[in-house]
Amino acid sequence: MSTDQQHTSKSWGHRLRQENRGLREKIAQQKKEVRLLQKELKNTWKLISDVPAALFLVQKGKIVFANQTACRELGYTPKEISVKTLPDLLHPDSISFANALQQEWSMDQILPDQNETFLTAKSGQTLCYEVRANKIRYQGKTAFLLNMLNLDQRKAQEKRLGQSVKTEALVRMASGFSRELEDSMILLGEHIQEVQGPESHDNRLLRSLGRIEAVREKGAFLSNHLNCLTRTEYDPSEIALLDLKKVLKKAVNISHPKWTAGSESNADNINIRTYLRALAPVYGCKRELEDVFVNIILNAIEAMPGGGEIYLTTEEHSGLAHIYFQDNGTGISDGIIDKIFDPFFTTKDGARRGLGLTLAHAIIGRHEGDIRVISHQDRGSTFLIKLPLAESAPLFKCKTRKKGLRDSRILIIGEGGAVIDILSQLLTGKGSTSAIASSHHETLKLLRGNKFDLVIADQNVPDIETSKMIRDIKRLQPDLPIALINARENPGSRNTPIKMGADVAIGRPLNMDRLLSLLSSLLAHEVPY
Predict the structure, then answer these.
(1) pTM strictly above 0.70
(2) Paired strand residues for 410
(3) Which is higher by pLDDT, 418 or 385?
């Protein structure tokens, strides 16, 4: 090889080495940029996942991504929700929203800026959302980014605010009206004294006197109610440490002669069942709390013209006393349930002024408590009163109960009604999550798609063969404990429900305190007694 050829070869090799070195540097730089982009992308997804509103990324109906808020509110894990489609989560009443998305997908239509829709959580609970949908590109294909704001909390807050505004307006109105009414009562009383003088013997005047006296009594009664509404606090002499169990028993005794009076009384068909466990005391005005409890009891009785049952239950949770008044009467229709605490609102004829529940709301508010109602048309109502417990030592010792209900998932098999509703409320108050199934098919469907820690079955559910249902449950999940309530125990066959496969059976009447203790034992894998 000539000298010129050697020189050319070396130059070419040198340039090749330089180009390789430059390419390696570019590759290293690009790898560094890729790592930075991956880190930024990871941070972006984490930021999206931590957004406080629920976010869904939907492509061809399939849920590609759901952030932590969406998973938490609906009760799914990210893995569980990744195999779902949007129609799987939509409540049947909101399928039109999925159809609207599909139309926009295929026909390039534009969705409204806001949509109100309902999703079904894993537990079966229905949640209301305000949805904003944006069409985007994801991995080169059309997709929808859904920003969903839970409206249940907002509606509850707006309801409380609205009730507070109405109460404040009532207090202002009642304050002025009460002063005017008191002046009128004074003048009326002076006129009565004049008419009652020794010179007045005319029968006409005596009849007028009777009418005036009746007006005065009604006015005095109304004045007392309005004075109760205008009060904002109590005199220290009116407040004492109260045992709510005793106050509730006294209220039942006070109300009894009121509902048994009259020739058309249905007292024989009214049954009040009390499940009053020992609570820490509360500070309160005994007289006014008794009035509230008596009024709610009488309202429940009026809602059961053909007779029925009222359940009074107490529970202690998170520093509050929970008092439940549950009836199986006519219930309250959706059209008026938001008005029952409004002043002077009543659906009853006669002299009822519609102030009973308004007074109850004001009195419980003065005790720094809360009163609310849950009702189903033709299935009864439940009034829940929450009162703060006194911070001082309790007047009596409460039974300690084993832990196990908190954070547990419980399937209740029943057809609604007083017992099932109150049991669900008690379990929720204990920190449990419950779902209700009313048929054999629905029970097995929930068990196949969800994980439960305990099953509570009502043996009174019609159209369900209890023994077959228990066998099918045990076949699906052999270790799942089952508690049978309202068990029918005939003489000589006391253990029949246990032979069916139930782990514990409780007959009637139900003792809620004992039932909760047995459920805790089952969840702790202890043998109940």
Answers:
(1) no
(2) 434, 454
(3) 385
